[in-house]
Amino acid sequence: MPADQSPEQSTTPSPGAPGAYDIRIARDGTWYHEGAPIGRKPLVRLFASVLWRDDDGDYWLRTPVERGRVDVEDVPFTAVELSVKGEGDGQILAFRTNLDDWVEADSQHPLRVAVDTENGRISPYIVVRDRLEARVLRPVYYELAELAVAPPAGADWPEDCLGVWSNGAFFPLGAAG
């Protein structure tokens, strides 16, 4: 199933008393239950299909009969591969997640770069679906950096900004140099 095709998600809580599942998603995208990694990818994909993020930023597994909170260290997915088609503003960038879903960067699935104010490290992200993001892994980010160009003329970006095009949208990656 493509990453952006998920069960309809609303901000209305599902039935059943909410609880906390002993499920954690590590920064590297590994899912854990009761402290042990969940080794079966089909099971992780099933859990991911009912993963939901509420307006407060909390993560939940939600089914029609119950819901439970999930601890997420950063974001639930990682972007592990990049596919590039075309060039210029007609370029299409598609990212494969650690769960083998593909998502194209576009206005509904934007790329963003966060900077840690304490250490200056950057962390790039892409929206996969419904407020759920994937952290773009460093090797994939380096591939993006090789594609970086100046922003379009007349754009409201800093002069030294570089970014990438995908599906007609420009996504800033950061300053040159």
Commentary on this structure:
With 177 residues, the protein is mainly beta. The chain folds into two domains: 19-72, duf1285 like domain (duf1285 like fold, Roll), CATH 3.10.540; 77-175, duf1285 protein (duf1285 protein fold). Helix content is 11%, strand content 42%. The strands form three sheets. The protein has a six-stranded mixed β-sheet. A six-stranded mixed β-sheet has the order 9-8-7-12-11-10. It has a two-stranded antiparallel sheet with strand order 13-14. The longest helix is centred in the last third of the chain and has 10 residues, at 138-147. It is elongated and about 50 Å long.
TL;DR of this structure?
By secondary structure, this protein is mostly beta strands. It folds into 2 domains: 19-72, Roll (duf1285 like fold), CATH 3.10.540.10; 77-175, duf1285 protein (duf1285 protein fold), CATH 2.30.270.10.
Oligomer: single chain
Mean pLDDT: 88
At the fold tier of CATH, the topology name of the largest domain is duf1285 protein fold
| Overall tally of domains | 2
Count of β-strands: 14
Relevant CATH superfamily of the largest domain: duf1285 protein
CATH-derived architecture of the largest domain: Roll
Share of residues in strands: 35-45%
Estimate the global geometry from the Cα principal axes: elongated
Query: What's the end-to-end separation, in Å?
Result: 39 Å
Across the major sheet, the strand order is 3-2-1-6-5-4
